[in-house]
Amino acid sequence: MSYAVEARQLSKRFGDFTAVERISFRVAKGEIFGFLGPNGSGKTTTIRMLCGLLLPSAGRAHVLGYDVAQEPDQVKTRIGYMSQRFALYSDLTVRENLDFYAGIYQIVSAERRQRIADFLELVGLRKHENVLVQKLSGGWKQRLALGCAVLHRPRMLFLDEPTGGVDPASRREFWDLIYSLAEEGTTIFVTTHYMDEAEHCHSIGLMYQGRLIACDSPAGLKEQAMQGQVLELSGEPLLSALEMLPRLPQVYEVAIYGTVLHLVVEQGAVPAIRRALGEDGFRIDRLETIPPSLEDVFISLVRQPLGDTLAEGG
After folding, report:
1. What separation in angstroms does the CA of 126 have from each of 94, 111, 122, 140?
2. Which of 39, 117, 144, 187 is 20 to 30 Å from the Cα of 161, by its Cα?
3. Contacts of 11 (CB under 8 A, 6+ apart)
4. Any idea what the Cα angle at residue 114 is, between residues 111 and 118, rounded to 5°?
5. What is the pTM for the complete model shown?
6. Beta strands 66-67; 58-63: pairing state
7. 242-256 as b/e, with b when 16 or more CB fall inside 10 Å?
8. How large is the greatest C-alpha to C-alpha distance in the chain, in angstroms?
9. Which of 79, 10, 14 lies closest to 40, judged by CA?
10. Residue 95: what pLDDT?
């Protein structure tokens, strides 16, 4: 298999603080790779190392076959990068921003016009091309920022928290654009703290406190990495159960979802939970196992000691 990204024992330290510690993973060419984790988990630091913007403190990484530490300029010319705060010019129009970045990428005039026209059509900005950027909504600005990052048609695209601060509808539309680019053969590396967005990825790396704690497909993570099982409980009185269940040693987590409870419990705990609910006077209408979400998987992994959850993706 051919890989667009290969990282081995990659680390980054800032003085006494270790932002990224010994992470190893690979990203296949043509896939959408999701890099997930809470804010401060090391996602942005990792992406900046892979883009040749930060020098690793230890370990090695190759992007499109080039060493990010020894050949950063070769990496930069072959990738697109959309940062958390992409530098759009608010006092320029949509077209003027695209034309400016096309000039930075040294796209010749005849080809430049066609590429800009094609992108405006792709993202639905054709009718807004003469609008000042400061007048655009957050979702439209994100589309424009994406356009500025892909005008030179990079083989690999890095997106750092691309949907932060936009509404759910705009998030969905942005992911449709990501899919369109992936279908054309672009490898996409996207960081996010939205667990639901991971379902759109072919592979996922889960980051926590600077370490990679799991790396697999969404289905593989749910099947292999989940510690315990997830139950859905309905009945009465729900608030009483919500208060009592966390006290049971077999129960890791309890959360309310509308008119039901979701429980993360150790394997084989259902009989004990039924018994405890009955003794507490709770009427069980339904208690059954449900598939875990990626958020369930993540929470189950961070309950373990970090040394037990390090994973290498392939």
Report:
1. 9, 18, 9, 12
2. 117
3. 18, 20, 21, 22, 23, 56, 57, 58, 59
4. 140
5. 0.85
6. antiparallel
7. eebbeebebbbbbee
8. 78
9. 14
10. 93
User: What is the torsional sign of CA 223, 229, 234, 240?
Assistant: negative
CATH superfamily label, 3-223: P-loop containing nucleotide triphosphate hydrolases (3.40.50.300)
Distances (CA, A) of 101 to 21, 79, 96, 98, 187: 34, 14, 9, 5, 21
- CA-nearest of 82, 142, 152 to 115 is 152
Domain ranges of the chain: 3-223, 227-291
The count of residues in the chain is 314
What letter would DSSP give residue 196?
A: G
pLDDT digits (tens, 9 = 90+) for 185-212: 999 999 988 888 888 899 999 999 999 9
Q: Residues 6 or more apart from 83 whose CB is under 8 A from it? A: 160
Token representation of residue 139: 């979702």
